[in-house]
Amino acid sequence: MTMVAELPVEKAVNITAIDASQGERRIPMSYAEFLNNVDENTHAEWVNGETILFMPPGTRHQQVVAFLFKLLGIFVDHFRLGEIISAPYEMKASPESNAREPDILFIAQAHLDRLTEKRLIGPADLIVEVISPESVYRDRSDKFDEYEAAGVREYWVVDARPGKERADFWVLDEGGRYRATLPDENGVYQSIIIPGFKLKVAWLWAIEKPSPLLAFAEMAGFSPEIIELLRKGPQS
Predict the structure, then answer these.
(1) What is the CB-side half-sphere exposure of residue 29 using CA atoms within 13 A?
(2) In-domain check, residue 143
(3) Helix locations, the chain, DSSP H
(4) Which residue from 17, 49, 104, 236 has the highest number of Cβ atoms inside 10 Å of its Cβ?
(5) Is residue 10 helix, strand or coil?
(6) 71 in the same domain as 13
(7) Domain residue limits at 42
(8) Residues in CB range of 29: below 8 A, 6 or more apart
């Protein structure tokens, strides 16, 4: 992790100084200082007048993020529905809001003007947060309240920690409040914001996750013959 030279010496940060027991370090800093002094490749958020530097996430967290990012990306790109972006990437939902870096965010085609060269200005349409041991309260409470207030239309919270596997899906109602939306009787969650996207929740906990391409083909209604060709791969 690097900080640019303009940062005063007394505020210089070394990644080893992060409290591993908490998974983060907090540094009092204005938003202007955050923009000027925190490297764009650093996983950090600006929250209530502090910059929060995070420890690198664990393997299981990254495996779930990677699977969902690939699956959502294939689906969204194929149907030209918008953009899928993963952390580290800043979302500044409003001039008064905190600056967050969701694990995955989706911006619908109609809102692509919110994307700037360096960050998203305005709320994402859908956000996915995958819980780490130190992020439970942050993802389930702090970010829940912030994303609801900002108008993020759909919010997924995925907990892939061993023995705690759980996925919660929230959609804004007409009053601007999140309401829980459940998977169907087959354990399939259908997104409200991404039309046609159907997630088998069990995919998230599988030791060997399905090919995102095959999962996409199933969602998109490809014929069994095409799916079988994709499954077999190139033939010699």
Answers:
(1) 27
(2) yes
(3) 31-37, 59-78, 136-137, 143-150, 202-205, 212-219, 224-232
(4) 104
(5) helix
(6) no
(7) 9-54
(8) 11, 37, 46, 49, 50, 51
Query: Judging by DSSP bridges, how do beta strands 166-172 and 178-180 pair with one another?
Result: antiparallel
Specify whether 45 is located in the same domain as 77.
no
Distances, alpha carbon 50 to alpha carbons 47, 53, 173, 211, in Å: 5, 10, 31, 40
**106-150 pLDDT, tens per residue?**
999 999 999 999 999 999 999 999 999 889 999 999 999 999 999
Q: Are residues 31 and 142 in the same domain?
A: no
Indicate the angle between helix axes 224-232 and 212-219, nearest 10 degrees.
180
Distance, in Å, from the CA atom of 105 to the CA atom of 57, rounded to the nearest integer, reads 17
**pLDDT band (50, 70, 90) for residue 22:** low
- Cα end-to-end distance, the chain, whole Å: 45
Cα–Cα nearest to 143, from 133, 125, 156, 161? 156
Residue 96 sits in the same domain as residue 186: yes
